Every structure is written in C-alpha cells, then in structure tokens.
Amino acid sequence: MAxxxxxxxxxxxxxxxxxxxxxxxxxxxxLEYIASAGLRVLLLTQKRTKAAGGGIRLIxxxxxxxxxxxxxxxxxxxxxxxxxx
Length: 85
Known about the structure:
The chain is an alpha/beta fold and 85 residues long. 42% of the residues lie in helices and 25% in strands. It has three helices and five strands; from the N terminus they run E-H-E-E-H-E-H-E. The strands form two sheets. A three-stranded parallel β-sheet has the order 2-4-5. The chain has a two-stranded parallel ribbon with strand order 1-3.
C-alpha cells in the first residue's frame, strides 16, 4: 500500500485485494494516511481471508499509522507490526 487509503481510494483498493487469492502480508511502509474507510477495506480483507483459513499481517506501519490501528482496536483483529525505528 502506498500514499493515502481514504474514501477516494477504497473502492480500487478493495477491488485489488479481492482479486488476490489470499493476501497474507501487506506492506504499509509507503502508506502515509489511512481513514476509517481504509480501515474497513482491511477489515473486510481480514474477514475474507480468515473465512478461507488464513488472515493478513500488516508490516512496516509508520508510527502514526500504527497508532491509528491501536487506538481503533484493530491491532486485536489484525496482526500489525511497526516499521523499524
């Protein structure tokens, strides 16, 4: 993921992720911003992959992105790791 994951990008992001058989790891190193609509995209992807016996891991989240996941409680639903400092 790169740039901004907000309402204007969510349909394209969800379409892309749904086109993948089973995404396992999503690198957030280049993600600068995520809105609640972006969180929904990742939650829907997590639900889909969990139903298939998998799940996703988000890696290299910048501190501000990681904090959003933590404050929203998404770190208890999706495995999220911070970028190395």
